[in-house]
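$ fold --in a.seq
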Amino acid sequence: MEFEQLTSIWNNANPTLDQTVKINKELVKTISFSKVKSSLSEIKWTSIVQIVVGIWFLDFLLGFAFRHHAEPLFLIPAIMLIVITLYSLIFDIGQLVMLFTINAKASVAEAQRKLSTLKKLEAYDAYSLLVIIPLFSAPFLIVIAKAAAKVSLYEFGSQWIYSYVAGSVVVAGIVVFFLRMFPNKGLQESIDFLRELKEEK
């Protein structure tokens, strides 16, 4: 059943009718919220994957930092990555918790507020890449090169870092542009759907 059909059934139910109709409306509400959660499955699974990868990467970084605790040139990039990884984990976990609290037990107004918050978080997450990509991509390369190939990128001087950061600013801008041009379709459809529902006071 599509959002348009559910909206029509919901809004055409007469609140003055008997208990059977009210029960039917509750059933429609349950189906509606199930449809909303289904539309948000992409966000849910993306968050789950990012959390799993984030936990693995955090474990790797902690081990790397411990092994190179006496080498500031490698310890500092590792600490920077640990901080941003923790931030990402907290962000993704918070987003996932919010998704799981959207259910038929909540009011339509509450669900609308949560979806609006998710929409704002989506925009915030995209725009944060303008800082994250330029600031943390070089430390990422430094750590990965040292951990995987035992190569110190510092041996190549510092010019590559400046060039790389400058290039990453352009890349970040392109990534953010496309993320904002093509936001999550299911989230927007869910917001539009709930906005049209009329809930009894």
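$ fold --in b.seq
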Amino acid sequence: MRRMTGQLLLILYSFLFLLLSPADLNFVVGFLVSLICIGMQMFLKDDWERYVLLICILAGSWYCVGICEFLPVLFYGFWTKENRGIMILAVAGGIFTGASGNANLSHGQLYFFIFGILLSLVLKLKEEAYEELEQEYRKTRDDSKERNLLLHEKNRSLIEKQDYEIYTATLQERNRIAREIHDNVGHLLSRCILIVGAMKIVNEDEKLSSSIEQLEESLNTAMTSVRESVHDLHDDSVNLREVTEELVGEFTFCPVDLSYDMGYDVPREIKYGFIAIVKEALHNIVRHSDASKVKIVMREHPALYQLIVEDNGTVKEPIQSGGVKALSREYQSGQGMGLRNMSDRVRMLGGMMQIVRKEGFRIFITIPKEVS
């Protein structure tokens, strides 16, 4: 845009030659030639093509005063940092042509022409300076955006790490509380139950028998409640990611690629179901497959939980033949108990299980969140 503005200003400047000499055919020819050359400058990319055009313009200005009058706007399109030496020679040639060629400019026209050349150079330098500033601005803007994106990503990573650490600490604290209750309160209650049992045996007073039985019943109820609370705390403290990573770390049959993308509020039924299915799937791979690679994907979607276990091996012992229906027949005949247990677990959670044998063995499980 600035280049077009500079060219337009120089064209208007060249029209000021009309103040020094009347318009004639040469002026019209020079104007048309300048428009044609400006258009050609936009399409010529190679330096030698542009230099040939420059030589043709200088040769034409020797014979046509109109072309000479429009040399400032024509030179404007040739100025670059790389060819300033050549352009200085071209300017000198243009001045020589205007002074001694067929153009034979008067002193006033020659000074006006030289001033136009200088104006062309000044406008070109300003254009280059503006382009450099614009490039620097764009570079600074892009760097700023990149830094902001990196900072945003780093902040997101830190927040996720902090949330995971809080989640892990919460589970560890639940586990600690469950252990403390089991080791302290549970043992004290067990001791009390044993003491009450001994009292019940040695007691000979009928009046105390009823009270001792009530005390024993209360202690047993308290022990049952403590056990249920401990079990609930322990079940809620299971970290699905850590347990799965431990299973993967203990699996030495072949490399395992684990992709985990689950939230923190996974129901414990889903946790234990996925853990049991992964255990059984890895066990089946060791027993029935010659896989060299296993991939496990645990992913949480807005409406469902997803588990995928797949390998690239072939079955050493026929687990299925003919798809899901054949698997059902095997289950009915008492074979494939591992796969049947997986299917039963998924069905109890209200989900779906699909088994595909194509370029390996693939178990695909989805469990809706509403049901879970």
